[in-house]
Amino acid sequence: MWIILIGFLAGVLLGMLSPFTVPVVYARYLSIALLAALDTVFGGLRASLEGTYDNGVFITGFFTNGLLAAGLVYLGDRIGVDDLYLAGVAAMGIRMFNNLGFIRRALFTKWRLIQAKGPGAGGAAPAGRSQR
Amino acid sequence: MLVRRVPWAIAVVCLVLGFMLSMQFKVQRQVALNTASLQRAQELAAALEKSEAERERLMTELDELRGQMTAMVKNQAELADVAEQLELAQVHAGLVPLTGPGVIVTMKDSTLPVTPGENPNNYIIHDEDVLKTINDLAAAGAEAMAVNGQRLVASSEVRCSGPTITVNGVRTAPPIVITAVGDPEVLQEAITMRGGVADQLKPWGIEVSVVMQEEVTVPAYKGSLRLKYGEPVTQEVSED
Predict the structure, then answer these.
(1) CB distance from A124 to chain B under 8 Å?
(2) Does residue B239 sit within a domain?
């Protein structure tokens, strides 16, 4: 768990401290790639809650989804469909909401289980033990 | 515990995600800054409008006070000599409206259609055109001039300010009406002579019309008279 936080913080720091910024012209590509990346992260979170998480799938998905999304926007710009990125935004936005909804439900049912087992023993340790 | 096996791949993913996020925040802040400048322009425009209204108010007040001052000096018998000098000085300084024979020069933007490939700037009146006109009028012996109701005095400017022209710090737009007191025929000749201002602007369709008048009135200068830097040299003048 800690590796996630450390990696994330290191990335944020790197971005903040780096002297260059993406030119505004390319900001659209970055934003759509970021959206795809976030979508993949939520998808991974959902998969880990479902127990179907696969490291390889997650990592390749993270990078290829981002690149593909940015590539789609680029293609749209090339062929004169400037609003093609909207398709990406809509598709990934819907998926993100679906995944978030699933994560919420999964966490909620887990919490319910803990509550049912014993109200006095709260916290993370019983949760881990209950999963076995 | 399964994740423990390859934590570095996850770390790299998180690193990239964080990097992208912060980058995107930075870019968006830049975009926001750019759009904020538009809002700032609107704010400044509002402030300008406000201070212009304030100036208008102060100008009428100034006008009143100047009138009062002249009246007071005139009313006192022992100051009759000074009053005469003051009046003369005010006439020359442009603080008093002047009337007499003269001309009214009207300059209008071109009504010709702009042909493609042609610079549209050629078809509108610029500060230079107005300057040339008043320069010619002054050379022809105009005693007093006003551009769109703004009396030209020693400190007057005729300056391009975007789509408008400022005279005495007041924005005006074409049509430009120049009132000049002087010999009407000489003044008219000065503008309409061959190679003169009217002739030069004709190809672009800019209309310069001169109307001779038995009597024209040039308004008084209403701007500030306060000197911030200059001081009159009294000693050397008395030595002469």
Answers:
(1) no
(2) no
- Range B192-196 average pLDDT: 86
What domain range is B53 assigned to?
A: 1-93
- For an interface test with B, give the residue of A9, A12, A14, A49 to mutate (most B CBs within 10 A): A12
Q: CA–CA separation, B29 vs B12, rounded Å?
A: 26
Tens digits of residue pLDDT in A57-99: 888 888 898 898 888 888 888 888 878 888 888 988 999 999 9
Judged by a CB distance cut-off of 8 A, whether residue A30 touches chain B is yes
Number of domains in chain A: 1
B197 neighbors B76 (Cβ within 8 angstroms): no
Residue partners of A14: CB distance under 8 A and separation at least 6: B15, B18, B19, B22
Across the interface, whether the CB atoms of A12 and B19 are under 8 A apart is answered yes
The predicted pLDDT at position A125 comes to: 46
Task: Kindly report, residue by residue over B161-187, the tens digit of the pLDDT.
Answer: 888 888 888 888 888 899 999 999 998
Residue B232 in any domain: the answer is: no
B231 found inside a domain: no
- Tokens 């014993």 correspond to A118
Domain that holds residue A51: 28-107
A92 falls within a domain: yes
